[in-house]
Amino acid sequence: MYLEAVLKSSSRHAKPAGLILQYGTAGFRTKAEDLDHVMYRMGLLAVLRSKKTQSAIGVVVTASHNPEEDNGVKLVDPMGEMLAQAWEVYATLLANAEEHELQSVVTDIIQQESINMQEEAFVAIGRDTRPSSETLSQAVIDGVTALEATYHDHGLVTTPQLHYIICCRNTGGRYGETTVVGYYKKLSRAFKELSKQAHGCSDDHKCLNVDGANGIGALKLREMEQYLQSALSVRLYNDGSKGKLNEVCGADYVKVQQKPPEGIEMEAGERCCSFDGDADRIVYYYNDCAGRFHLLDGDKIATLISTFIKELLVKVNLNLQMAVVQTAYANGSSTRYLEETMKVPVYCTKTGVKHLHHKAQEFDIGVYFEANGHGTVLFSKTADEQIRQLAREEASDERRKAAQMLQNTIDLINQTVGDAISDMLVIEAILSLKGLTVQQWDAIYTDLPNRQLKVKVADRKVIETTDAERRTVKPPGLQEKIDGLVKKYSQSRAFVRPSGTEDVVRVYAEADTQENADALAHDVSLAVFHMAGGVGDEPKPLK
Ligand code: G16
Q1: For a 10 Å CB count at each end of the chain, is N or C smaller?
Q2: Crossing angle for the helix pair 397-412 and 381-392, to the nearest 10 degrees
Q3: Mean pLDDT on 284-304
Q4: Which residue has its alpha carbon closest to ligand 1 atom 9?
């Protein structure tokens, strides 16, 4: 019966015959005009996943850091984490089934997962500010209603807000109130409590320049300001009133180009940060007195947060194990600093929050950040309980105070996924508590000069990687070539990997000087271009 309705509605969201899409680093992502059928089918999948897990499931229509013309979809699992990897296979099968195959693909998933179709299902939907997002989220809703499930359309929300909402709903409100207002209240309360413990906070600490990437993060930060009141004052740029989403602005632009976004005014020494298009990433930066730009990326954020937590852990004297999870993009200096100076174990996973998140769950406290500014901190149930108990107890003043600070940190950080707004508040609170300027934070260690480039190839799948994407196994000879190039420079390292969000191969290189990092990145790009089927013009040397 339900299959009839599914097929009937599907004809309104017909798949272009022959179009094949891959489930990438964070779901499907491509030109918006190719996604209507995918959205409809992800609506179906969300219902099946909801029935299977007997929980609410989230769907966010967004292409995050990609250009405005693209769009995409992120599915959110019961605890607010990314869709289980085992289900990515079903997502791919559904997205790529021709119309006449749809019925059998849906039936197969139901059978393989032994889904009871009588179960209730609930899907929460959200979207970013792209012009295509509203219509595409209607396609998701059509998929959900074709399977007769209930849904709530949260409309414009940041991706992390929807992750938060799913977690709240599935924990019966234990994680927080299941609304965007509940999110504002929870975070601003924790931020104010934590900041209260800062002494002698100068005015310097109070104002922050924020680049909203002309996206949803700007709208939501503006909404949140009334809850933060005077606890933090923000100058918001690229708020969507003029510019285009992610165009010469936003976290990805700033990180990759290593320069400030357009449209921001920054005085020397002023703290600035950029969100990405769906506000799940953040990077900080400033210009020094000589006008030189300094970037504080996800690695610097991970170091700041883990130093802060480690110092508190010493004070509370609880036996909790903390680790930091990074990817191959982590600057070599950050890994060295964490391991050698801070004595914190560091692990490397493949790119993609889904990989880092799962690794971080193995520890009492798992701090994970990608260099691009995507990350958060996970506290295990044990850590959470021990810290909260100590915060209530008649322990010594210092112990209790440290436990209370940790407790506020737990409440401030969005543990479901990387969250630009939540991370920003955590960073602001730490800087203020430690009395650190952005320059002092930056000086904790010095980044090795590095460069990221993109190479266009005919089929990026010809590149296969191993060792958490640090080495290639295909095409033959490419890794040997990269090894040879790396040897030409001092303190050097380079790797390449196919992007899971854009149709490009990413190249990363670091070396002792910027000139050498640029030269190595260019050499490696040429190798990729010639050995992996480059298209268009040969990569040019960086000026
Ligand atoms: C997504 C993922 C991130 C990943 C980024 C780039 O971010 O959530 O984990 O680092 O894509 O991935 P790739 O190098 O494979 O293109 P976002 O913010 O775009 O959703």
Answers
A1: C
A2: 130
A3: 97
A4: 352
